[in-house]
Amino acid sequence: MPIISVTNLSKHYSVYKKPPGFLGTVQSLVTRKYEVVRAVDAISFNIDEGELVGFIGPNGAGKTTTLKCLSGLLYPTSGKVSVLGFTPFDRKAAFLKQIALIMGQKNQLWWDLPAIETFLLNKEIYDIEQKRFDTIVHDLASLLDANEFLQVPVRKLSLGQRMKMELIASLIHNPKVMFLDEPTIGLDVVMQKNIREFLKEYNRKYKATIILTSHYMGDVEELCKRVIIINFGKILYDGLLSDLVKKHAPYKLISVVLKEYVDPKTLEGIGELRKFSFPEWIVRVKQNKSNETAAKILKHFPVEDITIEDPAIEDVIREVFSQPDKR
Ligand SMILES: Nc1ncnc2c1ncn2[C@@H]1O[C@H](COP(=O)(O)OP(=O)(O)OP(=O)(O)O)[C@@H](O)[C@H]1O
Ligand SMILES: [Mg+2]
User: Fold this and answer.
1) What is the model's pLDDT at position 6?
2) Where among 213, 230, 245 does a domain terminate?
3) Ligand 1 atom with the shortest distance to the CA of 63
4) For residue range 123-132, what is the model confidence (pLDDT) as tens digits?
5) Which residues contact 19 (CB under 8 A, 6 or more apart)?
6) Residues 253-267: pLDDT tens digits?
């Protein structure tokens, strides 16, 4: 039994369009024109316990709307959603105690008080025993290496330190299912890495099921075996990230560092030249030709170093989005 099951979920927003100008304003007093935005358009997927799934797509694709439907903040226009056997929008206490929706751009911490005060409030809301509370705060703060920030007024924390406190506040009740909406937004690379490590560890330690959206492909690459790609409210891809790379980028990049200068003319016919700026030389080759080509290069050129790489995930994703519009 999947822990999250979504069948033909749609969420449409009615957006009021005011015609331009003064006349438009007058007109709109009489007849209002509405336009329907299909933010989420009949999507279906299942997620098993313990999975960590990346949910990716460009701005306005429908990611946040989907996560809000899954966590019960929004009522779907149509379709069926089941999370841990509950219908999210019923917002039953037993459901809310097992999930968390964490949004990188929203905060719940009290600005002027130390984060621990917000944790204590959440302790009351979720009805958590003191002992369990102490253990979980200690565990989470240790995992995040953030013990020293618990007692500092939130306004004095950096963005990254605050995000760590937000995570603890959202996880005080030890949810089984986490919806993470851009948890690393605006953070520097070191802090992004910290948060990723934490999520990986949390997923492992508590067998938590996690759906994560992010515009940083590093997050997705590092954390998620499976990705769901959405655009215009529709799913374009649902499967292994590695298969996506194979399917949409059936090529590899061979990077060579040369020991001594060679005439660029001699490089012709070896893969597709991407860059030659001595001593660096990069060629693109078909996936199944990469070993053969690398061997050829090693045999015929003065090679200092050679590496075979997959293309950047960003490039692969761009390739997916460049397919014909499926609306
Ligand atoms: N409350 C709302 N009322 C009307 N339209 C909305 C509302 N919320 C979102 N939309 C529209 O629904 C679509 C999907 O928005 P959503 O926030 O789900 O996108 P997203 O994938 O999370 O994008 P981003 O990466 O920018 O966060 C967009 O076209 C957006 O303008
Ligand atoms: Mg969003």
Assistant:
1) 98
2) 245
3) 21
4) 999 999 999 9
5) 27, 28, 33
6) 899 999 999 888 888
**pLDDT over threshold 80, residue 59:** yes
Count of CA atoms in the C-beta half-sphere (13 A) of 51: 20
Query: Ligand 2 centroid vs 50 CA: distance in angstroms?
Result: 23
Hey, what are 119's tokens? 């944790």
Pocket of ligand 1 (CB under 6 A): 13, 15, 37, 39, 57, 59-65
Query: Using one digit for the tens of pLDDT, what is the confidence trace for 273-293?
Result: 988 999 999 999 988 888 999
CATH number of the domain enclosing 274: 3.30.70.980
Domain that holds residue 266: 250-309
Of 203, 178, 172, the closest CA to residue 109 belongs to 172
Q: Could you tell me if residue 236 is left (phi over 0), alpha (psi between -120 and 50 degrees) or otherwise beta?
A: alpha
- Residue 137's contacts (CB-CB under 8 Å, 6 or more residues apart) are 116, 119, 150, 168, 172
Query: Which among 197, 215, 245 is the end of a domain?
Result: 245
CA 85 centroid distance within chain: 24
pTM here is 0.83
Atom nearest to 66 CA in ligand 1: 18
> Using 50, 70 and 90 to split pLDDT, how confident is the model at 325?
low
CA distances to 1, 70, 130, 175, 318 from 46, in Å: 9, 12, 36, 19, 25
Residue 163: alpha-carbon gap to chain centroid = 16
Ligand 1 midpoint to CA 65 (Å)? 6
For the chain, the domain total comes to: 2
